[in-house]
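Deliverable D4.2, example record:
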Amino acid sequence: MRVAIVSGRGLADVKRRVGVKGLIYSGNHGLEIEHARGARWAHPEARRLAKAVARVAAELAPRLKEFPGAQLEAKGLTLSLHFRNLKSFLSPRPLRGLLEQIVGLDAAYLRVSRGKKVWEVRPRLRWNKGDALLKLAGTRGSTQTWTIAFVGDDQTDEEGFRRLGPGALTVHVGSSKRSRANFRVKLQAHVALFLEFVLSEWSSPARGSSRARR
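Output generated by the structure prediction step:
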């Protein structure tokens, strides 16, 4: 089995927070990947559009004084605008409007997506966490070489669920019944039980040694 942490956070941030050696780390919604042995990859078009992302950050940063509690997180290939701590007397709508106004100058190249109390500015590319997992599995068009299990609880994970489709074992964490995932667990604590089940099921001698190695 291979284990990958795929996150919307920047690659360095993901590695710092998880801190487990021997894993594959993917940041910026799958746009950058670091393999277990240290080899790195970044989406070439995302690298080309990094200057457009930086321009949005530079124009947005001084305007955030009007929105106390909002936090801008520049991550190189993408950026995040967090509004979880926005002062309660402020509506997030004007902040969203400002963000869309600034991003709109590069609307042909950038897009805004929604996460949990965060807006993400990302390159307008047909690439998401699901594509990153398919790349790691060695194919963009099929999941038959490896059985991919993808567990997520954020709105941006839905893109990955949709991209992987029924050929993967996709699991939504939460109570939403509108998820594109094939399965659902209610709580994050249940994820450990799911992983234990997968490990015991796929490492069982009854599954066959060649299958267990995949």
